[in-house]
Design brief:
It holds the Pfam family MatE. This protein has 487 residues and is mainly α. It contains 19 helices and no strands.
């Protein structure tokens, strides 16, 4: 039963309130569980896709780890630098398609999905050129900001061999959003799985058999990202599922570029401001007393957080798709229900993961280190980490709602205030003034998350969903190109 059916029932209930109130409750319950099924069907494969894509970098680092400490340090630093200066920016810009493709699909303007994707592919490829130049000078840049000369040189070499992956990653983000907004997620999971399996083989050949060493791992990243893009591109081109949404390359993708950029820039800012703040915490940990211990524990905490974050990230993708589709289709009631359902799922998942982390806090450290000092420190950090993950899960799905509605500009301002006016100053105060060390840095992140969650929750709860559906309709039809022009 659709949201429109529910609105009809609600109107009819005026005539016989006692009888219809009971029926209305049953309808609400049915709609709620139908929405739960839809979101879990979307989120499950998306979680798998996120984990598998995340594993590409991790597998490369694991192979490099067998080459020695310097190679590992250089590869880790290069990966962190690449995330901050390249991947996070492209991921953010690509998320503009969550709004554009999702709402167009809901409005049944199917031919526009291909146009939006081509436009995004063009812009992200152009943006990748200056980013590639930055990556080419990774070594000198790291040296300039005071990093160790040997590690900087090693990281610079690793980043140079990763440059081809930059262009592939941008195209991959476009294809993922194109498929996701059409509720087609299983093929993405299959392609990511195949890519990850092949990546292990490619890494082994290039790192150990070709004599390239750590450069081979970086090159393996590039090859694997291009394999994933090729698999999805072939699927889009040859599958009959896309005969309406992909009609081939069109010069119309060159039109209305500014409108895409107006949404892509705040989308990128929204993502980058959050991701950069976590990287900033790692840099601050190096300034603490006993920096080796602090950096090790914070790195383990970030690693754990990043892996577990893939679950709410999948839910975020699911609600972004559901909200954008329903607003585009002119069903504000169902869009509101989708937000209610995802908040229920995020809170349930967050409580489960947080409680599990607290229960295993005495043992988790041994998965990363045999040093008792590290394990003991991590034991005290786990409740703090569990709290941050719970809050991060809620903000993640609220951010997905924001993308589905097209609120990226609002989200960018919220993230700026939460992380850079509250989070980082609190982290500095707690870690360096109150001498709470790495725990203080993470408590600063929690302060930022509280502000972020509260702000996004207030915005979401005060939303006029009928008005949002009207805005979605205006956005879709203002950018729509007649079918005969695109053909």
């Amino acid at each position: 039963m659709s949201g429109e059916d529910f609105d009809i029932k609600k109107t009819e209930s005026v005539r016989s309130p006692l009888l219809e109130t009971h029926e209305e409750k049953g309808i609400k319950r049915l709609l709620f569980f139908e929405e739960v099924k839809k979101q879990l069907w979307l989120a499950g494969p998306l979680i798998a896709v996120n984990v598998l894509q995340y594993c590409l970098q991790v597998i490369s680092i694991m192979f490099v780890g067998h080459l020695g400490e310097l190679a590992l340090s250089g590869a880790s630093m290069a990966t962190s630098f690449a995330t901050v200066t390249g991947f996070s920016l492209l991921m953010g810009m690509g998320s503009a398609l969550d709004t554009l493709c999702g709402q167009s699909y809901g409005a049944k303007q199917y031919h526009m999905l291909g146009i939006h994707m081509q436009r995004a592919m063009l812009i992200l490829s152009l943006v990748s050129i200056p980013l590639a130049v930055i990556w080419a000078y990774t070594g000198p840049i790291l040296l300039l900001v005071g990093q160790d000369p040997d590690i900087s040189a090693e990281a610079g070499l690793y980043a140079q061999y990763m440059i081809p992956s930059l262009f592939a990653y941008g195209l991959l983000q476009c294809h993922v959003r194109f498929l996701q907004t059409q509720n087609i997620v299983i093929p993405m999971m299959i392609s990511s799985g195949l890519t990850t399996l092949l990546h292990i083989l490619v890494c082994w050949i290039l790192v150990f058999k070709s004599g390239l060493g750590s450069r081979g791992a970086a090159l393996a990243n590039s090859i694997s990202y291009w394999i994933n893009v090729a698999l999805l591109a072939l699927y889009v081109n040859f599958s009959p599922a896309f005969k309406k949404t992909w009609t081939g390359f069109s010069k119309e993708a060159l039109h209305d570029v500014l409108n895409f950029i107006r949404l892509a820039i705040p989308s990128a800012v929204m993502v980058c401001l959050e991701m950069w703040s976590f990287e900033f915490m790692v840099l601050l940990s190096g300034l603490l007393p006993n920096p080796k211990l602090e950096t090790s524990v914070l790195s383990i905490s970030l690693n754990t957080s990043a892996l577990l974050w893939m679950v709410p990230l999948g839910l975020s993708g699911a609600v972004s798709t559901r909200v954008s589709n329903e607003l585009g289709a002119g069903r504000p009631g169902t869009a509101r229900l989708a937000v209610q359902v995802v908040l229920f799922l995020a809170i349930t998942e967050g409580l489960f993961i947080s409680l599990t982390m607290i229960l295993v806090r005495h043992f988790w450290g041994y998965a990363y280190s045999n040093e008792e000092e590290v394990v003991s420190y991590l034991t005290t950090m786990m409740p703090v980490l569990a709290t941050s993950l719970f809050l991060d899960g809620i903000q993640c799905v609220l951010s997905g709602t924001a993308r589905g509605c097209g609120w990226q500009k609002i989200g960018a301002f919220v993230n700026l205030g939460a992380y850079y006016l509250v989070g980082i100053p609190c982290a500095v105060l707690l870690a360096f003034v109150l001498h709470l060390g790495g725990e203080g840095l993470w408590l600063g992140i929690i302060c930022a998350l509280i502000v972020q969650v509260t702000s996004l929750l207030i915005i979401t709860l005060s939303t006029n969903w009928d008005q949002e559906a009207k805005k979605a309709s205006d956005r879709v039809y203002d950018s729509t190109i007649p079918i005969d022009i695109t053909s």
